[in-house]
Write the structure tokens for this entry.
Amino acid sequence: MFDKLLGVEERFIKLEQLLSDPDVVRDQSKYQKYLKEHAGIAELVETFRTYRKTLEDIEDSKLLLEEGDSDLKDLALDELKSLDDRKEELEANLKKLLIPKDPNDDRSVIVEIRAGTGGDEAAIFAGDLLRMYSRYAERRNWKVEMMDSSLSEAGGFKEVIIMIKGVGAYSAFKFESGTHRVQRVPATESQGRIHTSAATVAVLPEAEDVEVHVDPGDLRVDVYRSSGAGGQHVNTTDSAVRITHLPTGTVVTCQDERSQIKNRAKAMSILKARILDKMNRDANASRSQARKDQVGSGDRSERIRTYNYPQGRVTDHRIGLTLYKLEMVMEGDVDEIIESLAAYYQAQALQENETAF
């Protein structure tokens, strides 16, 4: 492991040289790539250098214990204890920093919410999840942009797709993928019976153009008249767009904008994100589950989280976390859930790295 850290340090030094190379500076694409890599390992290298210096200081203190007089030995013992504590702290930090970082963590994110089992109540719940995520994003000063939606007659959404733009959005939302279950008395329930409904959430990192090349010849683009709400102009012009990626059979529709050009641009963003997601899954199946596994079927029994209104609680079944502050959660106060999930999966990764030192 020490050799691996030395290799990272060598790469860090090489990157510093590259970033000062005039030819690299002129090539902004290459410069930004190296700058991002440099920033990504800077803390690890700094911590390693401190750790290596601490090991040297420990050896010096041990030598002083062997060769020094009695007064110096007492000082060396105190210093050695402090250095040993520092060494343990630095080793713990290095283990965390050595955990491979998800390359998508800093990206903006596309969140797809679909009503599952439960009919109208499931569609209303999908709308509630949209509000929850939108409020949370606003608290983080991230921009929420509607990409596509299909309204339900009873309120809420059969399907809604949003983009959340902001650095680190994917790192926060990536644990939201799966089936969300709600237990409550619907407004239409005259006898006060509790119903269980579900909505599925899929989270995709935004794709960059340099990563995903889509051959225009592989696309079939259909335009048609929008059917949803949006005003007279939307419903009387062929502004809605449906794009089919023929090699994969992926179909994306967008009709939220009045402009066919804007709808096409949004549909392409969603399409590229889905293609990138598939590329990531194919490249590393152990890290990224298949999309159908990610969201499940929408059945009540497949769930990652339950929102129980009669008891005012939210339970995340993956980590056994239960909070009795449902109203606050539905208003976007989901920090405790997201942080607990991140800590849980980091602890799992740390456990796998326990033999590093």
Notes: The chain has a mean pLDDT of 85. The radius of gyration is 26 Å. The longest helix spans residues 28-67. Residues 322 and 351 are 24 Å apart (CA to CA).
